[in-house]
């Protein structure tokens, strides 16, 4: 499903409403809400909205569990950290227990921590395949999502749920949920806006199947649904506009 908005404010409000509704339904059905946050700049408005009383007071934070879809392998105090951004815009401002928040970073090596995070996920899901109630994602102007970047070997992963690898172009380690893990989600929401994303969004949604070049194409939920929240600029090359 693709929803096109004429402003990022409207797009972020729609994302906040989906977050609240999904959280309430998950807690009603299963007693808890497990969500993976995205990094980058696209979700910042959403996180700030969720920290405002209007939305904050509708989320069952005491039954909410926060993971991440990916992370840059930098300290949590580093401005490039996805977790730092989420704490500053959202998590420091809502009544959620620190024991319910699982930053995707540790003192171990990135490869060792990927194994630790994977075990943490499996424990959270009782040893079964992790199935998030909601995964928030962004998309880069090259069509990457989470830290699934074009042409990287992590795109071929079929078993592991979490992988860490050195991303040459950015000269940094990245750690990410893999495609097999993302596709198990019950609901995936992409937030993508800006003219710079238009070509990649067209290629991902309407172009040839080419997930190595456009990794966002890998995110096809097995059981769940994908909702693309986009603005008019990003949707400018699409024929089908929701
Ligand atoms: O760690 C990250 O950078 C994100 O997880 C990444 O996948 C992001 O969602 C896209 O790069 C889009 O980034 P923007 O929202 O800043 O355009």
Automatic annotation (TrEMBL):
<dbReference type="GO" id="GO:0005975">
    <property type="term" value="P:carbohydrate metabolic process"/>
</dbReference>
<comment type="function">
    <text>Hydrolysis of 6-phosphogluconolactone to 6-phosphogluconate.</text>
</comment>
<feature type="domain" description="Glucosamine/galactosamine-6-phosphate isomerase">
    <location>
        <begin position="7"/>
        <end position="228"/>
    </location>
</feature>
<dbReference type="GO" id="GO:0006098">
    <property type="term" value="P:pentose-phosphate shunt"/>
</dbReference>
<comment type="pathway">
    <text>Carbohydrate degradation; pentose phosphate pathway; D-ribulose 5-phosphate from D-glucose 6-phosphate (oxidative stage): step 2/3.</text>
</comment>
<dbReference type="InterPro" id="IPR005900">
    <property type="entry name" value="6-phosphogluconolactonase_DevB"/>
</dbReference>
<keyword id="KW-0378">Hydrolase</keyword>
<dbReference type="InterPro" id="IPR006148">
    <property type="entry name" value="Glc/Gal-6P_isomerase"/>
</dbReference>
<comment type="similarity">
    <text>Belongs to the glucosamine/galactosamine-6-phosphate isomerase family. 6-phosphogluconolactonase subfamily.</text>
</comment>
<dbReference type="InterPro" id="IPR039104">
    <property type="entry name" value="6PGL"/>
</dbReference>
<dbReference type="InterPro" id="IPR037171">
    <property type="entry name" value="NagB/RpiA_transferase-like"/>
</dbReference>
<dbReference type="GO" id="GO:0017057">
    <property type="term" value="F:6-phosphogluconolactonase activity"/>
</dbReference>
<protein>
    <recommendedName>
        <fullName>6-phosphogluconolactonase</fullName>
        <ecNumber>3.1.1.31</ecNumber>
    </recommendedName>
</protein>
<dbReference type="Pfam" id="PF01182">
    <property type="entry name" value="Glucosamine_iso"/>
</dbReference>
